[in-house]
Write a structure and sequence with these properties.
With about 260 residues, the chain is mainly alpha-helical. The chain is about 75% helix and about 0% strand. It is built from twelve helices and no strands. Pfam families: ABC2_membrane. It is a multi-pass membrane protein.
């Protein structure tokens, strides 16, 4: 077999292993998935009328349309926390040291984690999106091309955050530390335009919200699904995503190449 075929075979094996772990121990995935679902229900049914009035005098259905794209990106951030924990567990429990002694493609271990996490993120997004549709979210103006672009953005952004989460898992001594290190993945969406427009924030805080990775991704997704203005956010979202993929990949592979702890 060629080197590429061997790498693909080993990556598939590692992907199957990670998916089996997720199926056998679903509690972590479910706990992380509950965060965006509960936030969606909380902000729609408890704060919906007040929040919709604050962003332009609309009704609750307008706020549902506004908040769902942000919650979909927050779902990805929440899901990849589990990836950091899973990678940290593999490192601390010694299975990675065992893999190093086996005749397998070294990158397959990390790529298996990344592909498995992206698949879980997409599934989580589908679940949260279904909840959003159930409570009134509609995207009637989006074309097929815009839906495909939205899906591509979600996958690319998920891959970007996952590679960073893998690096966080590799530097963490245990699962608790990995969870804490990956916490910004959940906090950053809350400091973005997910819940309120950036222009309604205090002036000193706007640059923090505007120039972080989540805001341009949220605005791009919102524009694709709802037909709002995207402007330069599309390029920023793609740039942030590709930059994080490259940064996370080289960081994770460099840490993985070091001697096991």
């Amino acid at each position: 077999m060629s080197s590429l075929a061997l790498a693909a075979r080993d990556t598939t094996t590692m992907l199957r292993r990670n998916l089996l772990h997720a199926r056998r121990y679903p509690s972590l995935t479910l706990n992380l998935l509950l965060t965006p679902v509960m936030l969606l229900l909380l902000f729609v049914y408890i704060f919906g009328d007040v929040m919709s009035a604050g962003i332009g005098g609309g009704n609750r259905s307008d706020y549902i349309a506004y908040i769902v794209p942000g919650l979909l990106l927050l779902t990805i951030g929440s899901t990849v926390v589990g990836t950091a924990v899973s990678v940290s567990n593999d490192m601390s429990e010694g299975i990675i040291a065992r893999f190093r002694t086996m005749a397998i493609h070294r990158s397959s271990v990390l790529v298996g984690h990344v592909v498995g996490s992206v698949l879980q993120s997409v599934l989580s997004v589908v679940v949260v999106g279904a909840v959003g549709v159930a409570i009134g979210f509609r995207s009637t103006d989006a074309t097929v091309l815009e839906w495909l672009a939205a899906f591509g953005l979600l996958v690319l952004f998920s891959a970007a955050l996952t590679w960073v989460a893998v690096g966080m898992g590799l530097i963490s001594p245990n699962a608790e530390a990995a969870s804490n290190n990956a916490l910004p993945m959940v906090l950053l969406p809350m400091l973005s335009s997910a819940f309120i427009p950036v222009e309604t924030m205090p002036g000193w805080f706007r640059p923090i919200a505007e120039y972080q990775p989540f805001t341009p991704a949220i605005e791009t997704l919102r524009g694709l699904l709802l037909g709002t203005e995207i402007g330069h956010n599309g390029w920023l979202a793609v740039g942030w995503s590709l930059g994080l993929v490259v940064l996370g990949y080289f960081w994770a592979t460099a840490k993985f190449a070091q001697d096991p702890r």
